[in-house]
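Data availability (excerpt). The following record was deposited with the supplementary files.
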Amino acid sequence: MKLNTKSLLYGTFVLTTANFIVRLLGFIYRIFLSRMIGPEGMGLFQLVFPLYMVSITVTASGIPIAVSRLVAERKAIGDERGIVRTVIISLCLITIVSICLSAFFVLNIDQITVNLLQDFRIRPALFIFFPCILITGLAAVFKGYFYGLRDIHPPAFAEIAEQIIRMILVSVILSCIPSLNEQTSAAIAVFGMVMGELAGLLYLHYSYHQSVKNCSKSKETPSVVRISKTILGIALPITLTRLIGSSMGAANSILIPRRLAAGGMTSSEAIGTYGIISGMVMPLLFFPFALISALSVILIPNLSENVILKNWSNIRDKISKSILITCLTAFPTMALLVPLAHPIGIVLYDQPDVGNLLTPLAFSTIFLCLDYSLGNILNGLGKQARAAVHSTIGDVIQIICTYFLVAHPSFGIYGFIIGFIANSILVSVLHFITVVQATRLKPQFSNWFVKPGLASLLMALVVRLLYLVLTNYKIAYGLSLIIAITIGLMVLFITFVLLGSIPYSFLNKLLRIFSPPLHNDIDA
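Predicted structure:
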């Protein structure tokens, strides 16, 4: 049996594996980094990310998606020269946009550090960060090229290489030069991020040239002007929509330390608290996105194709499976984080405050994951405008809570948590209603929510009880966590199978990926 590397199942599996490896490495790296540079250093490091998110939204969202679509179209008609021309034009556009954006930031560095971020110590880190804008944009174009060809291996390997280079470089520098101040430590962390992105870009560049070195010329390749207009026609609406969302998120991130300080915290305490929630707590909440984001990359183009063909039964089937997979991922994550929040904070970060913040946020995991999954489904259905409106409403609520509640001494950082939970619940519900109305999907509440929820509740009770018993017998906290989580996941899997949440047919199809070669191709 020859493996079909273009199949839906294989693509999701490879991307999920790559995402899981990247997130696991990044998770380990953040643990190391938080211990080496402390909460205040992490807070300074995280202050770079509002600018980073806005930058990559401009350079690495619309144009790479346009590249992916146009490459797929050119390949379908055998226009290899048109594929190369599309990539080259996109690289030029990204370079122009990135240089203009970087120049704007450099010329306004004082206003950004003092008035916007309100911490002059971030200045060195920002100067180191600016080259990353161009590097990330160019890499995104190459990834769009490979996704258009349905070749997922180079982007997957590039992301793993980025994370490994970043981890090794920063770990070596911080270990060799101890006792650095928070300003220098944050700059070193940003330097590692830039070098990791550069390593990924170099690998993608090499893979691209290996892919096109035998490219044949085509007779009817569109002109440069026509390709440029097509790219911009696709990219500008997508970029504008995502830029609004990223700007909202960046504004919210900038507000948190400022409003904490307005509520009575010192600047150092505010940055430290922001570092804990953004650099330690949030990565735990977003861990299940390794699977959900991979599923979206593979599923959304499939939905778009079926919308054109008006194959609504297939659309409803795929949406139903997507919601089920999301719930099968989100509920267990919540069932692990809620009962084990405090020991996780101690074992991983040596920070008791992590558990206090993680416990309430973990209850929003299911809504957070549904928000992302259903939003991408709406994009695949051509309802991206509705999805953008829902997300904007949620972001506005989040910012209102951050501005008014975080500065209130009775709430503090929990004001942000209230807004985050309200945002996730409202947007996921609005997305769900729109998906049901647009597709006439019949909700399967029992299969989607009740069964995964009950199985996860059982796992939560098992892991909590096991952890308490093991620590009562003086077993180390870390080992107790590993044993409790391992047994809990085994109980969860068995319960899922018994309840029918994981069909036997799916297990058989998944196992076929690892089967020895026979005669027929997999076409999942």
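Summary of structural features: Residues 34 and 442 are 46 Å apart (CA to CA).
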